[in-house]
Amino acid sequence: MSSRIWSVDEHLDDILASVRPLEPIELQLPDAQGCVLVKDVVVEVALPPFDNSSMDGYAVRVADVEGASEEFPAVLTVIGDVAAGSAGLADDQAVGPGQAARIMTGAPLPAGAEAVVPVEWTDGGTGEGPADAMHAHSGAPEGATGEVRVHRPVTAGAHVREAGGDVEPGALALAAGSVVGPAQIGLLAAIGCATVVVRPRPRVVVLSTGSELVQPGEQLAAGQIYDSNSFALTAAARDAGAIAYRVGAVSDDAETLRATIEDQLIRADIVVTTGGVSVGAYDVVKEALSSVGDEDEPGSGVEFRKLAMQPGKPQGFGSIGPDHTPLLALPGNPVSSYVSFELFVRPAIRALMGLEDVHRPTARARLDTEKALTSPEGRRQFLRGRYDAEEGTVTPVGGSGSHLIAALAQADALIVVDEDTTSVEPGTETDVILLR
């Protein structure tokens, strides 16, 4: 382990300087969810591609329904049906003076028509009072012929979605750097894109170490605890946008750990370990990985460091394997591992994705507490807290102990206390990192 004390910023800068965005690939839309676009997507087909109705009703000429009311309805001759998905009326047909065409939502506006009258503003062709819905074509005795009484006037373009009203050909649909979410996939499909060029979601392998660890659901024996870190960090990796693989806890045996990690490299863009990085006699990660570097490859291997932070003082970072896969070795205490993930692993994942902003959002908030918070001199402390955006306050939850995981589940922010601050009085403004 290096004798140098690294700052939080130095360690993070070293990680981000070593991580390069993954190479772009072309993916089908369903597979691109969560990925980052590499190229701008330009609209080739107008959306919508033609003038169409936004309502079930009747396509009409504005002049024919001017002044219409329930007492004095405009009586129009129905010349045909226009259904969604159809080409519209016959080529030799158009809505002329005194005429209307039944039209369904999404159907193309027929030639001659200027607006759509919702069916609720008509008698639906029944000769009775206002209709509440359009009759199905098969069940409407009047079919698409006969007369319809219109009870209200409309203006030109009413209830019509104009061609290109959403986006015009040549317009920028999505810019490079956009994350492809459900709405973006919908837009891409709507403009006819079947595939997109993206950076793939990083594959993250998470494993915890310790002979004392037992999987949830199993019986605890004396001296054993449940493995929570691998579950929490795998979930955190998915939350960051990665494809995450959780490996069961590895016992305190250096050869076993080294072999396990080597086996996982085939499916890893980044490896995260938790536990075994301190100065104890059984700190297996440090033992297993301190000598994995390739003498012929500068910069390979894992360096173990002490950081000027609390929690999370012991950390490891480097690269392993033939592809120089980044590896981040985090402490084993639950809070230490989670805080370390947020500060170092999450930004690395986001950098692999090709995102420009890799950090969690931050805010300034007043400390809402009854007594001053203390912090060790020379270390940047990260305390769990609950942030109230409306009040602009943050309230500490739990103590500073790195094993207090129950409070972590209640926190939605980290309260940051700088290295040169040893006491923070109630009401003091401080930086907070927002976790949700």
UniProtKB/TrEMBL annotation:
<dbReference type="GO" id="GO:0046872">
    <property type="term" value="F:metal ion binding"/>
</dbReference>
<dbReference type="InterPro" id="IPR036688">
    <property type="entry name" value="MoeA_C_domain_IV_sf"/>
</dbReference>
<dbReference type="InterPro" id="IPR036425">
    <property type="entry name" value="MoaB/Mog-like_dom_sf"/>
</dbReference>
<keyword id="KW-0501">Molybdenum cofactor biosynthesis</keyword>
<keyword id="KW-0500">Molybdenum</keyword>
<dbReference type="Pfam" id="PF00994">
    <property type="entry name" value="MoCF_biosynth"/>
</dbReference>
<dbReference type="InterPro" id="IPR036135">
    <property type="entry name" value="MoeA_linker/N_sf"/>
</dbReference>
<dbReference type="InterPro" id="IPR005110">
    <property type="entry name" value="MoeA_linker/N"/>
</dbReference>
<dbReference type="GO" id="GO:0006777">
    <property type="term" value="P:Mo-molybdopterin cofactor biosynthetic process"/>
</dbReference>
<comment type="pathway">
    <text>Cofactor biosynthesis; molybdopterin biosynthesis.</text>
</comment>
<keyword id="KW-0479">Metal-binding</keyword>
<dbReference type="Pfam" id="PF03453">
    <property type="entry name" value="MoeA_N"/>
</dbReference>
<dbReference type="InterPro" id="IPR005111">
    <property type="entry name" value="MoeA_C_domain_IV"/>
</dbReference>
<feature type="region of interest" description="Disordered">
    <location>
        <begin position="124"/>
        <end position="145"/>
    </location>
</feature>
<dbReference type="GO" id="GO:0061599">
    <property type="term" value="F:molybdopterin molybdotransferase activity"/>
</dbReference>
<comment type="function">
    <text>Catalyzes the insertion of molybdate into adenylated molybdopterin with the concomitant release of AMP.</text>
</comment>
<protein>
    <recommendedName>
        <fullName>Molybdopterin molybdenumtransferase</fullName>
        <ecNumber>2.10.1.1</ecNumber>
    </recommendedName>
</protein>
<comment type="similarity">
    <text>Belongs to the MoeA family.</text>
</comment>
<dbReference type="Pfam" id="PF03454">
    <property type="entry name" value="MoeA_C"/>
</dbReference>
<dbReference type="InterPro" id="IPR038987">
    <property type="entry name" value="MoeA-like"/>
</dbReference>
<feature type="domain" description="MoaB/Mog">
    <location>
        <begin position="205"/>
        <end position="351"/>
    </location>
</feature>
<dbReference type="InterPro" id="IPR001453">
    <property type="entry name" value="MoaB/Mog_dom"/>
</dbReference>
<keyword id="KW-0808">Transferase</keyword>
<keyword id="KW-0460">Magnesium</keyword>
